[in-house]
Amino acid sequence: MAAALLLAAAALAFFALRQNANLFYTPEVLAEKGLPAPGKDVKVGGWVEPGSLTYPGDGSEMVFTIIDNSPETITVSFTGIAPDLFREGQGVVAIGSFDAAGLFTARQLLAKHDENYQPRELRPLGAGPDQNAS
Q: Any signal peptide, and if so, which residues (predicted)?
């Protein structure tokens, strides 16, 4: 009886952890495995391709390309206010879904930074945007 309860608890834990894993798809993984079903909520991530950020229409929508270390890309459309750290060349994770044509529509953007990030307020006066205090 105890073994059956332990096995059931382990199975429940496994399925709960698998459903809540915070993994994201990179362009290379999507090219290998194929796109998820249209409308299915997923996370995609990589770097914002330099030169790809555009603001079509009235400027509330942005479109950009996510890249990784492969020739594959993901085109992302997002309407809203991007995080302060969001910019070309930086890491990003987008949460949303693909449409039937393969365009990813994000409902949330999470900007990532490297370990050298320092808030503007903590930089010494006169330091440029790419300089960090020691």
A: 1-21
DSSP β-ladder status, 91-98 and 73-79:
unpaired
Enter the DSSP assignment of 71. Answer: S
User: CA nearest 95: which of 43, 46, 48?
Assistant: 43
DSSP 80: S
Binding residues: 113, 117
**Listed residue (81, 72, 89) closest to 106, CA to CA:** 81
pTM of the complete model beyond 0.85: no
* DSSP secondary structure letter of residue 120: G
Extract the annotated binding site for heme.
Answer: 113, 117
Structural domain 23-114, CATH architecture: Beta Barrel (2.40)
Domain coordinates of the chain in residue numbers? 23-114
Task: Check pLDDT > 90 for residue 2.
Answer: no
Lowest mean pLDDT segment, chosen from 14-18, 24-28, 39-43, 71-75: 14-18
> Letter for the amino acid at 54?
T
